[in-house]
Specification:
By secondary structure, the protein is an alpha/beta fold. It folds into 3 domains: 79 residues, Urease, subunit C, domain 1, CATH 2.30.40; 120 residues, Diaminopimelate Epimerase, Chain A, domain 1 (Roll); 315 residues, Metal-dependent hydrolases (TIM Barrel, Alpha-Beta Barrel). It is built from 19 helices and 23 strands. The strands form 5 sheets. Strands 3-2-7-21-22-23 form a 6-stranded mixed sheet, with helices on one face. A 5-stranded mixed sheet has the order 9-10-11-13-12, sandwiched between helices. A 4-stranded mixed sheet has the order 5-4-1-6. Strand 18, helix 13 and strand 19 form a beta-alpha-beta unit. Helix 8 packs across helix 9, helix 12 packs parallel to helix 13 and helix 17 packs antiparallel against helix 18. The radius of gyration is 24 Å and the shape is globular. 48% of the residues are buried.
Length: 562
């Protein structure tokens, strides 16, 4: 019934917005004199767009739409600027990142180690006497002109006696002596599982800790937790930062360290009407070995699709079961547990995102999905495989046959050269094989996987998609796998909206859809490749409401508290 009513609304809007009928409704906002990329089925470009309430009333020429204006219509002169549908990051750990956003130091995009250390120094000068200085990821040493990580001595010099926790991806953490003392760490035996102290050529500890995701998730969880107020403030601030980058939606895959309590700030903002992003979220079991029972308990009153157009439960993931989430080779017992959960998810019509990196073991996953599908068809559930950068053409074909989607992130922008060294140039040049996937009609969506392992900036991801250039300037992904700029934009708009079950409501700028859009600082379609990553939004609208505005549009910013 709800789908039917939404369809009738869109049909009514389409009829209303023909030029013979659009005059029956007066727009609240007119965007004129722009380059508006609609991302509709034909990728039309128009000059102007009319908004009535929260929805798009009409698109067309500036002269034609100006005739619809009434005395209260707000006119926004785009002055030739480019407008795109609001972006949706299809794989971002925003719920977890937002919890600590207000108490962390950001090294995102910092070009030099000297500047990064200066940020630490500034944070330390403003921190309380017992305050921690935390950089929890989102940077790589190759982004710095110095091409290295800082030493422990440099961290101490920057932060003085305050404890510092500095995380690099999921492979290295540096602690200052004050931090080690606070955490009661003095020997390898004090470290979490798989953790060891890094040592220099003479066997002396450097202050660095080596390990993997298990190690550093445990270590990070030993740090002071933000207060409830800090978590809410952090969520507001992080979402505002994403609005600045043109995002109006996101899909959070859950994963490690995202238990039920992690969602409280998100739900608080939703209930108070203060969300500035449309969020589709997932739930991961935090009980290794007992995942099925945990899902049955957690989700008995939470059907897939529960929520509204601002907050929607999208299913389970991305760590579906703990025995198969690493890059290793899962045991037969682990695969059996996974099959039990997938069968349960299919029977309960539950959405699913599943983390899977290595091509070498993915056939076992497809075998399970095919058996589940034979008993309970999954084609309408929008299941998605995350990562799988080295997918073979056979794997792409199996995904297409199962009618599941492929969610690609820009991890290889940050570590493409290391990936090529490990896997060989031939595999690296086709990883990820996006062009091959699109050519067979496989649904591809895009995201960043921020914030521990990558930057949350979608334009950095878009630049990598269309150029194949890594953070250190190497071209690893072959040109034969690059999507066009229009195709890459569609991965972040219509395709990602589809994954959130919202393609009839957003993802393109068409009459009847929500007025979710971004006015860009530069023309995404024509700027030099190297400048795509520097683009941001000057004005972001969510349902016709400004959630970010600067420069010429600063006066349109919503009042504080809205």
């Amino acid at each position: 019934m709800r789908r039917q009513s939404v369809g009738m609304l869109i049909l009514f809007a389409l009829v209303l917005t023909t030029m013979t009928g659009a005059a029956a409704q007066t727009p609240d906002i007119l965007l004129l004199n722009g380059k508006i990329l609609t991302v509709d089925a034909a990728d039309h470009q128009v000059e102007a767009l009319a908004i009535a309430g929260s929805r798009i009333l009409a698109t067309g020429t500036s002269d034609d739409l100006r005739k619809l204006a009434g005395p209260q219509t707000q006119i926004v002169d785009l002055a030739g600027r480019t407008v795109i549908p609001g972006l949706t990051d299809a794989h971002i750990h925003a719920i977890r990142a937002a919890l600590t956003y207000s108490i962390e130091v950001s090294w995102f995009g910092v070009p030099t180690l000297a500047e990064a250390l200066a940020r630490l120094k500034a944070a330390a000068e403003n921190a309380p006497p017992d305050g921690w200085i935390i950089v929890a990821g989102g940077w790589v040493d190759r982004q710095f002109a110095e091409k290295r990580k800082p030493s422990q001595a440099e961290l101490v010099a920057a932060a003085g006696g305050r404890p510092v926790y500095l995380q690099h991806l999921y492979n290295w953490v540096m602690l200052t002596p004050a931090a080690m003392q606070r955490l009661n760490i003095g020997a390898d035996s004090d470290l979490p599982k798989f953790g060891t102290f890094e040592r220099d050529s003479e066997g002396r500890p450097t202050g660095g800790i080596l390990g993997n995701g298990v190690t550093f998730l445990d270590l990070f969880n030993r740090l002071p937790h933000p207060s409830a107020a800090q978590a809410i403030d952090g969520t507001k601030a992080f979402f505002h930062e994403l609005n600045r980058l043109g995002l109006t939606g996101l899909i959070d895959p859950a994963g490690v360290s995202v238990g039920p309590e992690s969602y409280k700030p998100l739900f608080t903002l939703w209930q108070s009407g203060a969300l500035t992003l449309r969020v589709a979220y997932h739930v991961s079991s935090q009980k290794p070995g007992a995942e099925l029972a945990d899902y049955e308990s957690l989700l008995q009153l939470l059907p897939s699709g529960f929520g509204d157009d601002m907050l929607r439960f999208n299913g389970i993931g991305e760590i579906v079961t703990w025995g198969v989430w690493t890059d290793g080779d899962p045991t037969p017992e682990a695969f059996a547990k996974l099959e039990d959960v997938l069968a349960w998810a299919a029977a309960h019509r539950m959405g699913l995102q599943i983390h899977w990196n290595p091509q070498r073991s993915v056939d076992r996953l497809f075998d399970i999905m095919e058996r589940v599908n034979a008993k309970t068809p999954i084609g309408d559930l929008r299941w998605t495989i995350d990562h799988l950068y080295d997918a073979s053409d056979r794997s792409l074909a199996r995904m297409k046959t199962l009618d599941i989607a492929w969610d690609v992130q820009d991890s290889l922008y940050f570590n493409g050269t290391a990936f090529a060294a490990a896997q060989g140039d031939a595999i690296a040049r086709r990883s990820p094989p996006i062009r091959n996937a699109l050519s067979i009609g496989l649904r591809v969506v895009a995201g960043t996987d921020a914030h521990r392992v990558s930057d949350y900036n979608p334009f950095i991801s878009l630049r990598w998609l269309v150029t194949g250039k890594t953070i250190d300037g190497a071209t690893v992904l072959g040109a034969d796998q690059h999507p066009s700029r229009a195709e890459a934009l569609r991965l972040y708009t219509m395709n990602s909206a589809w994954l959130a079950h919202a393609e009839t409501q957003r993802g393109s700028l068409e009459p009847g859809k929500y007025a979710d859009l971004a006015v860009l600082s530069a023309d995404y379609m024509s700027v030099p490749d190297a400048e795509i990553g520097a683009i941001h939004s000057l004005l972001t609208l969510l349902g016709g409401r400004p959630v970010y505005a600067e420069g010429a549009y600063a006066a349109l910013a919503a009042p504080a508290g809205r």
